[in-house]
Amino acid sequence: MGRYIIRRSLQAIPLLLLLSIFMFLLIHALPGGPEQVIFNPHLDAAGRAALRARFGLDQPLPVQYLVWLRNCLVGDFGYSFATNQAVSAVIAQRFPATLQLFGISLLVALVLAIFLGVISAIRQNSPLDYTVTTISYFGLAMPAFLLGLFLQDIFAVQLHWLPVSGTTSLGYTFDPFNAFLDHLLHLVLPVTALSVLFVAGWSRYMRSSMIETTKQDYMRTARAKGVSPTSRLVRHALRNAVIPLITVVAIDFGAIAGGATITEGIFAWPGMGTLFLDSLQSRDFPVLLAILLLSGFFVVLFNLIADVLYGVMDPRIRYS
Amino acid sequence: MDVPGQINITPSEEEIEELLELTPALVQKRRSQVRIIFDRFIRNRAALVGAAYLILLFFFCFLGPTISGHNQPDVIHPADASQAPILKYPFGTDDVGRDQFARAMAGGQVSLLVGLTSMLAAIIFGIGIGSLAGYYGGIVDNLLMRLTDVVLAVPLYLLLFVLSATFSDGSPRSVIFLIAIFGWTYAARLVRGEYLALKEREYVLAARTIGARNFRIMFRHMLPNAAGPIIVNATLLVGANIILESVLSYFGFGLHPPTSSWGNMISDGQALYELAPWLVFAPGLLIFVTVLSFNLVGDGLRDALDPYMTER
Q: Which among A18, A265, A291 has CB closest to B146?
């Protein structure tokens, strides 16, 4: 098991290196290159030469890459153009909010998808199955921002059941319990908007995976042995049926990140997504590229975790 | 050929027909592969509805302006601004008085065009890379799949936003290019998987034995057999691309005015949502039903193709 983990980790490293090269080339592929972005256009030739030397832009490209890579590994992503703060500080400030939204949405989507997929599968072709499948189709066809807009309009603006945007309402500073409840209420709409798409896709996948699993011979053996239906469902079928789902979730991880950005934009959630959108408007490239690099890193990391999980749950993979 | 002692008992055409008439229950009219798949597709009602809607949508977007007379999406009618849907303006007008019905049709043309063209480009590119990776295997496969992994590693929306903010000029061409550049990865993976499996078939060995060149084997022999999943993926990709383009346009990174697309219309209408909800509902509903139809057709194709493949 340990060897499997080490093997997969080693395979991930060249991927991360390639990713960093890709990002670095992106900076230099921007029209005009980094100079265009940093320098004051009114600078004269001597000033430009001085700035170029200071930023190390006169070095050959591979050297620049290595310097940039070393800085990134240490955590120094440069300074934001808009606020002149260190990029790492800006991102660290916004990270918890996004982690909250992302993590809770992922969990909710997984639980709901597995639940819906399983009940669809065991009650195949029933009205319940048809309802779930139809809702899945609807969820897959709805663009995320549209769903967010409609949810916001119906539940927040028209019905006043839930808050419109942000993470907190005013007036709860001295009351931690109510502040916590209020925060939960603020989470409901963004999490719903973000997870619907993935619940739709994953539940359909779970359904077909579950149907395939229940057709296997070992399920028939379990039933012949007299294993109870619940135990058959949970211990035998479910454990095997979720394994392919891990792959799908890993593939969709990047999509969740993109969806989180859009959802944060619509609900004014103060996380990395809104930071990203604001930086796009102000062309704040250090922040943008740091976010891209970090997201790429997390996607690779998550894929690695998913592979390890796959190995944990399916011993055949470990020993191949 | 005359072999001594062999009796030639091959029946003639008329005799074959007479024999067939004797056993009508066993006669199965020979259908082509395409016909078999088509018949299976027709049996799926949801897919049929989706396909019908798409055909109607194409007529609506491309023939609609000429037939219905609403062919001026950019002309403003200040006197009729912010009208709710009435007979003269079936989708209403926006705050400067543009006919939303005409805009919906023009936007539909653009959205559909962008979706289809980017899908074609992505599929062609994906087939190219996937077939090379799957057929040659080894180091070529390794390198190409690593490349695919790198492109897949960065979240799509984030990368697209950054690239379109810096490079795009808001024309359909740049948007198509951007979407296609990242849409090929799934198709490449799919094609590679298919080719890895098909590589072991006898006809590939036979073709190689008689001296067929590699490219000929890949595209003349293996590709038609791998076509099923590719077609399904292509159909679903159009829906995904339409959504992608609308998201880009909504955030201002896709098509810029005056080119109107459904995403543009939603972002324009969003500001006036309280007073004029039809401005958002019309393009939103259109996007939703269109993507839904593409998904239904894609799933119908998948069901029509798969059982056929395993039947053989």
A: A18
pLDDT tier at A310 (50, 70, 90 boundaries)? confident
Sign of dihedral through CA atoms A188, A191, A196, A201?
negative
**Range list of β-strands (E), B97-199:** none
Of all residues in chain B, the one with the smallest CA distance to A261 is B158
pLDDT class of A107 with cuts at 50, 70, 90: very high
**Spatial distance between the Cα atoms of A85 and A73, rounded to a whole number of angstroms:** 19
* Contact with chain A for residue B53, Cβ under 8 A: no
Contacts of A137 in chain B (CB under 8 A): 292, 295-296
- The pLDDT assigned to B181 comes to 87
pLDDT digits (tens, 9 = 90+) for A49-59: 777 777 677 77
> CB A144 to CB B247 under 8 A?
yes
* DSSP labels, A162-192: S--SSS--TT-TT-HHHHHHHHHHHHHHHHH
Residue A293 has pLDDT above 80, yes or no: yes
User: Where in A46-203 does DSSP place strands (E)?
Assistant: none
- Residue A98 is predicted with a pLDDT of 93
- Give the DSSP letter of residue B256: P
For chain A, say whether B285 makes contact (Cβ under 8 Å).
no
pLDDT in tens, B29-49: 777 888 888 888 888 888 999
Whether residue B273 contacts residue A158, with contact meaning beta carbons closer than 8 Å, is answered with no
- DSSP string over B48-94: HHHHHHHHHHHIIIIIHHHHHS---TT-B-GGGTTPPS-SSSTT-B-
Q: Which helix (H) or strand (E) segment is B310 a member of?
A: helix B278-311
Q: Is the minimum CB–CB distance between B270 and chain A shorter than 8 Å?
A: yes
Contact criterion met (CB < 8 Å) for B155 and A295: yes
Mutate to test the interface with B, among A27, A28, A36, A146 (most CBs of B within 10 A): A146
Enter the pTM of the model.
Answer: 0.85
Chain A CB within 8 Å of residue B231 CB: no
Residue A22 touches chain B, beta carbons under 8 Å: yes
Q: State the distance between the two ends of chain A, measured CA to CA, in whole angstroms.
A: 12
Which residues lie below 8 Å from residue A39, measured CB to CB, with a gap of 6+? A48, A51
Q: Quick check: B275 contacting A, CB < 8 Å?
A: no
Q: Tell which wins on pLDDT, A181 or B298.
A: B298
Contact of B284 with chain A, judged by CB distance below 8 Å, is answered with yes
Q: What is the dihedral of CA B227, B229, B230, B236, to 10 degrees?
A: 140
Who contacts B304 (Cβ-Cβ below 8 Å, separation ≥6)? B37, B38, B40, B41, B44, B47
B288–chain A Cβ distance below 8 A for any pair: yes
Q: Does residue A116 carry a pLDDT above 90?
A: yes
- pLDDT confidence tier of residue A106, bands split at 50, 70 and 90: very high
Is A153 in Cβ contact with B287 (below 8 Å)? no
